[in-house]
Amino acid sequence: MSVLEIKDLHVSVETDQGTKQILRGVDLIINEGEIHAIMGPNGSGKSTLAYTIAGHPKYHVDSGSILLDGAEVLTMTVDERARAGLFLAMQYPVEIPGVTVTNFLRTAKTAIDGEAPAIRTWIKDVRESMVKLRMDKSFAERNVNEGFSGGEKKRNEILQLELLKPKFAVLDETDSGLDVDALKIVSEGVNRAKENTGLGLLLITHYTRILRYIKPDFVHVFVDGRIAEQGGPELADRLEDEGYDRFLTETPVG
Amino acid sequence: MSAASTSTAPTSSSSEALPTAEQHGIKEHSDGRFGFVPVQTRSARFKSFEPADFAAVTGREAVWKLSPVGKFTDLTAGELDGSNYDFDTTPHADVDVSWVDRTDARVGTAGAPEERAAANAWSSFGQALAITVSGEEAKEITLTRATLGSVPRAAHTIIEAKPFSQAVVILQNIGDARISENVEIIVGESANLTVVTLQEWNADAVQLANHFATIGRDARLKHVVVSLGGSIVRVNPSVILAGPGSDTELFGLYFADAGQHLEQQVYVNHDAPNTRSRVNYKGALQGAGARTVWIGDVLIGNTAPGTDSYEQNRNLVLTEGTRADSIPNLEIETGDILGAGHASATGRFDDEQLFYLQSRGIGEIEARRLVVRGFLSEIVQHIGSAPLEERLQGAIENELRGTEGN
């Protein structure tokens, strides 16, 4: 069984005002098949954790480690991490002009698997996933994320999640900007991917809304760059009622 | 106020409707510090068929200021071989390709030289190569020049699409060359012509080309410049939308490697009502000293109400040590237009795109290829010849492989 371990992770970014420390000692263990929700107010470092796991060059790891089945992730390039089984569904997926969704998916699948997918089953898989995510056939020939609405971009992220079959996926505010119908479709896709591959999920969200459709096993509350509290799904219900105020009052401003 | 007389540029009888010099901004700037006078109206630029009418090229002229003029004085000032050359072409019943005399009625109907190299070529060519298209069915012909050699030479080409005819004409340039040449493109009423000029010269080649096009009523010209190979390649298309309802799309794709100079000065002259133009040039630069120049002039005359015009240039810088000049100019002499716009952007490789692709397992080299291929393929997709599009995708791949050694 696969396991993703985050140990005492400290991360900073360069800003115009100098180096800014964002993560201040994060510890987290996610086993395959588990769903962990990371909740927290804006600016608490949730997205930084997501991008650090994926290896975005903007984030500097000052100390700590991220282990995937015992192997150090932090020394891997971005693409090596993906090939090792990590996936990040981005909050703001970028447009890639001139590269069609079909071409992109096939190139990514080939890179992840180390060989080109068998053409007939692949086309069938892509088509089925698109139908389930209510994506029109025409998406396949459109350029990646170009002219996509917010909801279409998120569906395109989940389409990749289903097709690339990672061991662990980080969903960075996948629920933001989605209306309730799109939220349901996207959530179904995530649940389907988990059912089919048994992946572990790190669900980063500001709101509890998505947790109605994707049931977390664990909830962690992120405040000021570290986990302030953790518990089971009942913690999410409490946050729904109380908000983040009780955590923020404990944190000095600045 | 020396340039004030240029405001009479467009041919029109209603002279009182002409804009004043002040409307053009043809006066010294009020800050007065530099005595700077903006350039004249584009259509009023000096023209002549005689090289002697142009002063010796210094590199300070508007048309030459971004070109390495010291490297081709043989073409601007020397004697040029104007004899006929060998070419290959695919025969087609409705496309006549033959040498015609200088006295051919079509010579000089599409435009006239605006600089010395073009005038030198014009006065030096012996016969013109005329490609005459007739027939309403779609067809494609390729004319290949592979053995021009390295002796400085002049050439003159006429491409005429008879009224209602349709064709894709591909001019393929390979091998060695030192050439100054003029190409006249005459698109008859309601004809639909595509001209693709491919520069895949050997590394030492120098080419200075001017394409002059005139488009008749309700006719269409798609013009595509693809410059990949050669040392200095300058292809300047000038298009006059002369007939009401005429339409032109000008595309360009260039990929400059270390030491290469690739230039294009594009000029669209809207001179009739309800005309439409789209200009879209995209370039990539890689390697020390890779240099590209794009100047896009659009003139919407007061003869051209209802004009719909847009021009853009995008450059993708792949390595350090390159330079891309991108200069859009728009002159509008009538208030009654549908639209006119321009855009220019030169940027480095987008790290966020790279991150996105890599985060899906795609290695850095492959990711870069995908992005550049995607960037340039917008132009390739517009060519309208499937075999050529496929071949060009391959040629871009080859160019990209050059990057990976860096």
Describe the structure in brief.
The complex is a heterodimer of chains A (254) and B (406). Chain A is an alpha/beta fold and 254 residues long.
Order of helices and strands of chain B: HHEEHEEEEEEEEEEEEEEEEHHH
Categorize the overall geometry of chain B. globular
Uncertain stretches of 5 or more adjacent residues of chain A: none
Give the distance, in angstroms, between the N- and C-terminal Cα atoms of chain A.
Answer: 41 Å
Q: What is the distance, rounded to the nearest whole angstrom, between the alpha carbons of the first and last residues of chain B?
A: 51 Å
Integer count of domains of chain A: 1
The ordered H/E elements of chain A are EEEHEEHEEHHEHEHEEEHH
The total count of helices of chain B amounts to 6
What is the residue-mean pLDDT of chain B, rounded to a whole number?
A: 90
Number of strands of chain A: 12
Largest sheet of chain A: 6 strands, mixed
Give Rg of chain A in angstroms.
Answer: 18 Å
Oligomer state equals heterodimer
- Return the structural class of chain B: mainly beta
Q: What is the averaged pLDDT score of chain A?
A: 93
Tell me the number of strands of chain B: 18
Percent of sequence in beta strands of chain A: 25-35%
Strands in their spatial order, largest beta sheet of chain B: 1-4-6-8-10-12-14-16-18
Helix content of chain A: 25-40%
3D structure, described in words:
The complex is a heterodimer of chains A (254) and B (406). With 254 residues, chain A is α/β, with parallel strands linked by helices. Helices cover 35% and strands 31% of the residues of chain A. In chain A, α5 (150-164) runs parallel beside α6 (180-197). Chain B is built from six helices and 18 strands. The termini of chain B are far apart. In chain B, the strands form two sheets. In chain B, strands 1-4-6-8-10-12-14-16-18 form a nine-stranded mixed beta sheet, covered by helices on one side. In chain B, strands 2-3-5-7-9-11-13-15-17 form a nine-stranded mixed beta sheet. Chain B is globular, with a radius of gyration of 21 Å. Chain B has two domains: 1-40, no CATH class; 43-350, no CATH class. Chain A binds chain B through residues 54-57, 77-79, 81-83, 87-88, 90, 93-99, 103-104, 107-108, 111-112, 143, 160, 164, and chain B through 350-353, 355-364, 366-367, 370-371, 373-378.
